[in-house]
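Predicting holo structure, inosinic acid bound.
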Amino acid sequence: MATILPDVSRTFSEYLLIPRLTRKRQTAASVDLSTPLSRRTKGEGARFNMNIPIVSACMQAVSGGDLSIALARQGGLAFVFCSQPIQSQVEMVYQVKTHKAGFVTSDSNVTPETSLAALIELMKQTGHSTIAVTEDGSATGMFLGLITDNDFWEFEDDLSGAVKDYMTALENVIYGIEGLSLKSANQLLHKSKKECLPILDDAGRLNSLVFKKDYVDHRRHPMELLDDTKRLCVGAAVNTHDYKDRAPALVEAGADALCFDSSDGFTEYQKEGIDWIRDNFGNDIIIGGGNIVSAEGFDYLVKDGNVDFVKVGMGGGSICITREQKGVGRGQASALLDVVARRDEYFEETGIYIPVCSDGGLANDTQIVVALSMGADFVMMGRYFAMTEESPTPRTSINGQIYKPYWGEGTTRAQNWQRYDDAMSSRVMMFEEGVDAYVPLVGSLANVMATTLYKLKSTMVNVGADSLADFKKNAILTLVSEQSVVEAGTSTVFQFSSNRELEGKSWGNRD
Ligand code: IMP
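Done. Tokens:
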């Protein structure tokens, strides 16, 4: 007969945090949300830390290039999905790693003979208001000048006129010479009160552009997650079928971390994959494994010391039907508590700390807080990010409301990419483990995260914690009864307030 566990399978919404002493000096602003992504030995720091405990799911409808950039700018990490050909995944990683190192290759240029009409069209397409003018219209042609949307009046000037009659010519442009440091370039911009500084090579060809807005943007995002060379960080997913080809290409493109993307990571295939990547790339790369939902799964993936972090969760995802389809999985809170308890024991036994990620099923900000208090070092979310402007899906209007499509990686839709990829084409899908759905658009990632992070810090202050490590140590949770859930709500009063309506548009309205 099968073993029946004594505990029921529980979820985050069944728990509440008990407040503890808040000291006068404690404010949300002083809370430190940094957290490790890589394993560490007692007494030593982790090889890789994130500035916030949030990563995005390895999903087609979530982690594309733009979202990865937006999340790294907030201090978190995206895992670019692997359900696509290796080359396109590599391009997304590359997009993040080459984003705004300060010196930007000019991606839209004109010649002096280009008409104002064509210039305006280019400005609309690219969203750029400053365009470089080069002899041949290329990004590295002989530099002749700059033209901005202040140099002409769209509704007054003759749009058949040529750029050369409106641009600021080379002799009047302040420029830098290749080799100039970013700091000096920014100082030059500051002194000259310009918006854009072209950088030229010795022969006068355009090399790159430096923008004031990038400098300002950088100062406004002090939590950006950057590598040693000041490039934004990005993770990438791998699968157990083609990792021997995919992982080297991703590492070459600059991925900072790899993570196996599987609903069930308690497998020999995955262990072999983790070991292979570690053997071939050493300690420079961060490797995540999962998903697991038990102490037994943790022990299996962690033995031999090759995995950096493990992901926990099966069947809790908002688009997931794994439990229904296959009868496997575990309540997310129970799964996390089991793995964290074993992780802590393992730390006591070996002195090695393995970060744990709680993946999927988070329905609102409160549940993120509960997951972290239970010992997760960070959380992975799909729906949360699918709802933002930066997710890689188109806006869709349904009955006057704006939605974005969101589908599971276990749907036919997601798996269809294999039809175009030889290495994977032998896999046939017998049934789906996810659904294809829509989620409301909630706005920019930065705005949604600002609220989430503030709430998180505020709760940590209630518990008297200065850091996530403190939070886990201090947190006391209680199970809630159905009646206390009713008590927590506002069902006994009638509300006119627009606050609640606004909340309805926030990401946390799944329940
Ligand atoms: P969410 O944050 O609740 O939307 O859950 C996202 C998580 O669901 C992902 O990180 C995956 O672990 C999981 N997931 C993604 N696609 C599927 C699927 O098709 N079936 C089951 N789980 C999925």
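The longest helix spans residues 332-350.
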